[in-house]
């Protein structure tokens, strides 16, 4: 286990006031800590953080739910900021440019997935949190390819969640939905509220599935044509055979058999939420209608760039609650309460 990212700088590094909100062990509150400026590698870009989203994945990293967290850890992987330094070989961005950094901070750039344009599937992917200094900091580093220019027309203060939640919903919708598609979105939360907006912008006929009746009107306002209670067996039965693409953003157990039955021939159930229990799938339900069950996580840098342009052009906006960075612990408590509508963004105040 390496803590080298927090160790003293090499002698040629210039000492500079950088600081971050750091957790030293699982579940511990974040404390503000001064850091030495790390040396910038030739392929890296340094970004001064202006805003950073807080996502359920940050909570999972804080609690070491996935077993890969290296403490001390700096959370935050929905970063908006300005480029403050460029490594000698950094390309594609300029000093002072406003940019975003999402779930991934670097990839090897020479493996088969990287050379195929699927850098997010690189076996050597370096995550922005867990294995790296994240965005709850005055500054962050990332490989230049993963530093995405923010297009004009996006509000920098609200754009952070697009870098994670936004690209996560955009990637399967843009790959698998046509304007004529009937699309279902399960869960109207941080991912779902963006998925509804993207599907509406593509022009799909949209059915939202939620267990929370108080969200029916919100789902319609975000673009849903129909809203169905996800735990009402009769309501699900009425959807049988309809949907070309059904995207699940939840992490709770649902009646997956009934949901697969809502798929049209060649329909696809696509998981974005990590359901903790295995999903039982009857092979016959797939075979006879040529249906599929799949999943994905985030997207490649080009998909992130396309998503930001698509969001700017179509006025897709993450609905965020804001906290100053010094209130990061309150923001974490708010997220954990499940009451945030729909995402949380921390505004840097170092
Ligand atoms: Zn995230
Ligand atoms: Zn690679």
CATH topology of the largest domain: Quinone Oxidoreductase, Chain A, domain 1
Order of helices and strands: EEEHEEEHEEEHHEHEHEHEHEHEHEHE
Give the % helix: 10-25%
**Which spans have pLDDT < 50 for at least 5 consecutive residues?**
1-5, 7-15
Distance between the termini: 29 Å
**Content of β-strand:** 25-35%
User: How is the biggest beta sheet arranged?
Assistant: 7 strands, mixed
Can you tell me the number of structural domains? 2
- Tell me the overall shape: globular
Number of strands: 17
- In CATH, the architecture of the largest domain is Alpha-Beta Complex
CATH class of the largest domain: Alpha Beta
- The value of Rg in angstroms is 20 Å
Mean pLDDT equals 93
CATH homologous superfamily classification of the largest domain: Medium-chain alcohol dehydrogenases, catalytic domain
Q: If helices are DSSP runs of H or I spanning 4 or more residues, what is the number of helices?
A: 11
Q: How does this structure look, described?
A:
This protein is an alpha/beta fold and 350 residues long. It folds into 2 domains: 199 residues, Medium-chain alcohol dehydrogenases, catalytic domain (Quinone Oxidoreductase, Chain A, domain 1, Alpha-Beta Complex); 131 residues, NAD(P)-binding Rossmann-like Domain (Rossmann fold), CATH 3.40.50.720. It has 11 helices and 17 strands. The strands form 4 sheets. Strands 3, 4, 5, 8, 9, 16 and 17 form a 7-stranded mixed sheet that branches. Strands 12-11-10-13-14-15 form a 6-stranded parallel sheet. Strands 1-2 form a two-stranded antiparallel ribbon. Strand 14, helix 9 and strand 15 form a beta-alpha-beta unit. Helix 4 packs parallel to helix 5 and helix 4 crosses helix 10. The longest helix is centred in the C-terminal third of the chain and has 14 residues. One zinc ion binds next to helix 2.
């Amino acid at each position: 286990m390496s803590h080298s990212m927090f160790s003293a700088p090499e002698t040629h590094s210039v000492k500079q006031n950088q600081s971050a909100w750091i957790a030293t062990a699982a579940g511990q509150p974040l404390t503000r800590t001064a850091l030495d400026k790390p040396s910038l590698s030739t392929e890296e870009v340094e970004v001064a953080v202006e805003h950073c989203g807080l996502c359920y994945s940050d909570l999972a990293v804080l609690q070491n739910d996935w077993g890969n967290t290296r403490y001390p850890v700096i959370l935050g992987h929905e970063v908006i900021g300005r480029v403050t330094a460029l490594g000698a070989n950094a390309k594609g961005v300029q000093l002072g440019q406003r940019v975003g950094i999402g779930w991934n901070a670097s990839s090897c750039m020479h493996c088969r997935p990287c050379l195929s344009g699927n850098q997010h599937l690189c076996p050597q992917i370096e995550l922005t949190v867990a294995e790296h200094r994240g965005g709850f900091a005055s500054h962050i580093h990332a490989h230049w390819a993963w530093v995405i220019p923010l297009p004009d027309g996006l509000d920098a203060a609200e754009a952070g969640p697009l870098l994670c939640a936004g690209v996560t919903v955009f990637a399967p919708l843009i790959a698998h939905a046509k304007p004529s598609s009937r699309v279902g979105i399960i869960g109207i939360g941080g991912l779902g509220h963006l998925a509804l907006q993207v599907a509406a912008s593509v022009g799909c006929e949209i059915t939202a599935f939620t267990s929370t009746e108080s969200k029916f009107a919100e789902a319609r306002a975000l673009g849903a044509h129909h809203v169905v209670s996800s735990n009402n067996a009769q309501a699900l039965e009425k959807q049988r055979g309809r949907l070309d693409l059904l995207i699940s953003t939840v992490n709770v157990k649902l009646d997956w058999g009934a949901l697969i039955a809502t798929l049209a021939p060649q329909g696809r159930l696509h998981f974005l939420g990590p359901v903790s229990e295995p999903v039982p799938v009857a092979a016959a339900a797939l075979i006879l209608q040529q249906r599929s069950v799949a999943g994905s996580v985030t997207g490649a840098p080009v998909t992130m760039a396309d998503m930001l342009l698509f969001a700017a052009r179509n006025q897709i906006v993450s609905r965020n609650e804001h906290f100053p960075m010094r209130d990061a612990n309150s923001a974490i408590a708010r997220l954990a309460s499940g009451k945030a509508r729909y995402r949380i963004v921390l505004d840097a105040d170092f």
